[in-house]
Amino acid sequence: MLLRRCLATLLVLVTAACDEEAPPVTPTQGELPPGVVARAGEESVRIQTVERVAAAQNVAPEIARERALSDALFAAEAVRTVHPAVRRVVERGVLARAVLEEIARAAAAEGLPSDAELDAIVAERWVELDRPESARVTHAVALFPKEGGGRDEALRVARAIEAAVRDVSEPEAFISAARAVPHGDAVEVRVERLPPMTPDGRGWTSSLSGDHPAGTYELAFARAANALTHPGERSGLVETSHGFHVLLLEERYPARRVPRADLRRALAPEVQARRARERERALRDRLENETVIEVARNFDALTARFGE
User: Fold this and answer.
1) 220, 196 contact by CB (below 8 A)
2) 297 domain residue, yes or no
3) Where does the pLDDT of residue 293 fall: very low under 50, low under 70, confident under 90, or very high at 90 and above?
4) Which residues have a Cβ under 8 Å from the Cβ of 38 and sit 6 or more positions away?
5) How confident is the model at residue 299 (pLDDT cuts 50, 70, 90)?
6) CATH number of the domain that residue 193 is part of
7) Please, is 90 exposed, middle or buried when counting C-beta atoms within 10 Å of its C-beta (0-12, 13-18, 19+)?
8) Rounded mean pLDDT of 149-169?
9) What is d(CA 114, CA 195) in angstroms, rounded to the nearest whole number?
């Protein structure tokens, strides 16, 4: 049925510019083979086809028969008038689409998402589906020298920064005060505002397209940031592998967690699409392993004119 419809569509496209109309043909009635309810030339319409059309389009059997017969008429004419090479292209496309639709049906038939399927999506989209409480901070860090050593000097500079920002609660004032601390050439000082981070070190950011993951942070740093409770609060010195930090809390964010039952319903279409893609990938891999594929040696020369 699908192949007939595509051939019929092809014929309509090929003959759309034709203005000449053929005289109508009056249908006749007669004895047909068992299971066949109509025939257009050599094209037969079977009762199973009518049943499928009636069920799919929710129409009466008589209407379904006429629609199937119309497809058969056009398909018969397409077979007669359309070049065989064009028909083969259409047939391949129709058969490929039928396989993909069967894959999609099989994926949907597996039912609601399993816990493992939900966990895989939540792990990727944790920012919108399962985000812990988070904190956004501005920090100043006295970096350890790249060549090693210099820890004591970095600690001295960090303590000076800590003292300089002791009474500061606004981010811009914090940045100015930290940058004004002398540090010489031995220690580099970096001051920056960071995106929100969770206690386990996952960063995230917001944009017009939504919230997205944005890097990771050392556990000691993320825990210190999330230990601050109110905007304007400062941390003590926090040591990481990069150096000694002083943090200023700018904002806290509540957790965002979607209930499991809601997730199962909301993510069902995405899970089914993933199942279908995996089935398609597995089928393609199997077919590529089992099928001999040849490409013309002069492929580049043959297709060079396409870009002209």
Assistant:
1) no
2) no
3) confident
4) 32, 44, 45, 65, 68, 69, 72
5) low
6) 3.10.50.40
7) middle
8) 92
9) 33
Q: Is residue 176 within a helix (H) or strand (E), and if so which, with residue range?
A: helix 171-179
List pLDDT tens digits, range 71-98: 777 777 777 777 777 777 777 777 788 8
pLDDT band at 16 (very low <50, low <70, confident <90, very high): very low
Q: Residue 141 forms beta bridges with which residues?
A: 190, 245
Contacts of 7 (CB under 8 A, 6+ apart): 74, 75, 78, 79, 82, 87, 90
> Could you tell me which residues come within 8 angstroms of residue 40 by beta carbon, excluding any fewer than 6 positions away?
69, 72, 73, 76
Asked whether residue 36 is assigned to any structural domain, the reply reads no
Give a yes or no: residue 82 inside a domain.
no
Q: What is the pLDDT of residue 24?
A: 53
Please check whether residue 192 lies inside any domain of the structure.
Answer: yes
> Within 10 A of 111 (CB to CB), how many other CB atoms are there?
9
**pLDDT above 70 coverage of the chain, percent:** 86
* Cα–Cα distance for residue pair 34/31, rounded to 1 Å: 9
Closest CA to 276 of 95, 98, 93, 102: 102
State the total domains in the chain: 1
* Residues of the chain by 3-state class (helix, strand, coil), percent to 5: 50, 20, 30
Burial class (CB in 10 A: 0-12, 13-18, 19+), 63: middle
Cβ–Cβ under 8 Å, residues 97 and 27: no
Of 120, 124, 114, 234, which is closest to residue 168 (Cα–Cα)? 234
What's the whole-number mean pLDDT along residues 51-70? Answer: 84
Structural Rg of the chain based on CA atoms: 34
Two structure tokens written together for 7: 């051939």
- Full domain range(s) for residue 233: 131-257
Eight-state DSSP code of residue 16: T
Helix or strand or coil: residue 67?
helix
